[in-house]
Each structure stands twice: as structure tokens, then as C-alpha cells.
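Aim 2 progress. For Fibronectin type III domain-containing protein 4, the working sequence is reproduced below.
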Amino acid sequence: MINRPPAPVNVSVTQLRANSATVSWEVPEGDIIIGFSISQQKQDGHMQRFIREVNTTSRSCTLWDLEEETDYIIQVQSIGLYGESQASKKVHFRTLKKSDRFPSNSSNQDDPTVQGLDKSRHLQTGEMIIIVVVLVMWAAVIALFCRQYDIIKDNDSSNNKEKAKPSSERSTPEHHSEGLLRSKFHPSVPSINIIEV
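Predicted C-alpha cells for this construct:
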């Protein structure tokens, strides 16, 4: 008999909203897992949704279209090459009001809602770091481009000056001394002095 993969562990609910929540879990090492399935039902026992994903290594799934201020129960199963695992332990959570951002502090610390809140804060911090890093990299790329553009522009303007220099020299009037030479007496011609008597 072929063993089924072990059930997922550390199932938790994060990023709670009024109409959505993210389920995450871990899979014990050593088994090939090719997908997962999640059963979602309301606290009153009414089965609402069954999600099955294969050909994925994802360890999280976002649940959409939830009702606000409603209690839900979820269980996760691993899908292996030869079948599905046992279902994980049941996890209870309650969606928020549309006006609420976070659940009330009166919840028990063991409540997955509170655990999910902590993880959500870490994720948001991580996302902010990624956004800041991307913005800094873009700023660096733009600064580098501007610097290169200035260098290219300076080179072009200096090349234009070099090209313009010979033509400007050609355009300046040349001074010829031929006119001055013509006005002088030639040294080989003797000068005659006329004396009146």
C-alpha cells in the first residue's frame, strides 16, 4: 500500500479583511507535493467552497468573496503523486467589519486571527522594504542616465566647437602687405634731387 503524504502543518490565516483572507501552511519535508486542496465552510457547518490546485508548489491561497463579520472553518490537504493527505487541523477565523482594519485586542493570543495579524504586519514591512529598494534602484538608474547624457552632451558641444573653429578662422579677413609695399619706393631706383639755380 502506498502511503499518502502527511497533512499540512502550521496552518494559519493572515491578511484578514472584511471579504478576504489568506491561508498559509507548511508541508513536512521528504514528500513530493504537487498541489493542495482547501475546504472552507461557515461556522454553522454549511460547506461553502472547495479549492483544489495542482502543479503548484504554493504554500498559501487567498480566499475571496467572504462575508463580513462571519465565522469560518478551513482545512488544508496536501496533494501528492499518489493521492491526498489527511486534512489538517481545523482553523477558525472571523472576517472583519468593512469599517475595521484589524481585529479587536480582546481576542485570545492563541486565536489564529491574532497570529495572522502579526504575520500580516511582517509582510507589509517586507513589501515596504521591497518598494523602497525598487524606488532607490530606479533613482540610481535615472541619475546614471542623466550623468551619461550630460557627458555625451558635453562631448557633442566640444566637438561642435572644434569643427566650428577652422571655419571661423577661414572667415576672418586676411591682412596682405602688398598694398604697403607698392606705396614704398623701391630701393633699386635712385632718387633724383632737382636743384633750382
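Confidence is low (pLDDT under 50) at residues 103-121, 174-185. This observation will guide construct design in the next reporting period.
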